[in-house]
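Summarise what follows for lecture notes:
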Amino acid sequence: MKLPILFSLFLLSACTPGTLQEKKGEASLYDYDVEERIKELGLELTDPGIPVANYVHAVTTGNLVFMAGKGPKTAEGERITGKLGQDLSIEAGYEAARQCAVAQLSALKAEIGDLNRVERIVKVLGMVNATPDFTDHSKVMNGFSDLMVEVFGERGKHARSAVGMGSLPSNIACEVEVIVQIK
């Protein structure tokens, strides 16, 4: 009797997450693979690395993941810096916010293992490094929001705040925090 049990365990361990979900009778959240969609968009997720201070990238409690703020970096790993309304255009700010989204997706994948588990992007707080007279914070943060919808479809639509800051760490252009519901 030990051999059939071991073989059954082997088969279960060899199943992909989607196959295992189907065996459990759980429906997939998406009619596409989220991680393949990210690749199709020409994006590459990276290892988020070790936090630069005394915090963690994410805290999961129940079915919610609270993500630490992430700033934008170029593909080469350089911080995107500058102040909106002074150093950066709205378009450059939009791209910076989009890079914050890539950083958040990378950290989220590291936390939960499979981005197909995302049920909903729940809440986003976008902080824009801006001059006192800059008023297009929402246009900048659309870079983040638009990418969430491109990746997760309707499940990527979220409640959001977009606020201006007098400064941000290392003069980064923006920083984004996220709350995510997972399956």
